[in-house]
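Researcher: Checking consistency across runs. Here is Sigma-70 family RNA polymerase sigma factor again:
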Amino acid sequence: MSDASIDWAALYQKHRKAMFGAAREVLRGSGRVDLAEDAVQNAMVSLMQSPPTEAPRSWEALLVATAKRRALDMATSAYMSRRAPLSEDVPETDHVVVEDEVLERLETLAVARAVLARRDDRTRTVFREVVVFDRPRAEVAAELGVTPPRISQIVTEVLAEIRAAVEKGG
């Protein structure tokens, strides 16, 4: 039962971006970032059904941690449901394919971080807001005082640099 003294809508509005970003980061490893919104929704429903008995020190920390846990639950169940049980019909090398995919994603992530580290703060902000948090280009442009096409150019330049660095091998 939800506690009527807690303004859940206001908490959601205030912390949804952080919750979504955390859930998306957890789900990225499983290739299921499409479930990030579901993880945030599940986190909110869970907290509304069982609110904390005392006000937490930080609502943001509680909401983000709950969203991460829900995302982790989803990532684990998505991963497990995609894997076939090992049997005589399924080659035992399937786990090698999964490990290779994970390693490839980790290498790409490391390359992307290195590319972004060489860029200025504004470029990193644009990339984080548009690509990681999936915010509308027009919204980010308005906040930074540039045009939406400039935001698109920045994102395209960074993605091209990351692709080139990945193809080059780092």
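Researcher: Does this match what you'd expect to see?
Model: One thing to look at in this run: The CA atoms of residues 128 and 134 lie 8 Å apart.
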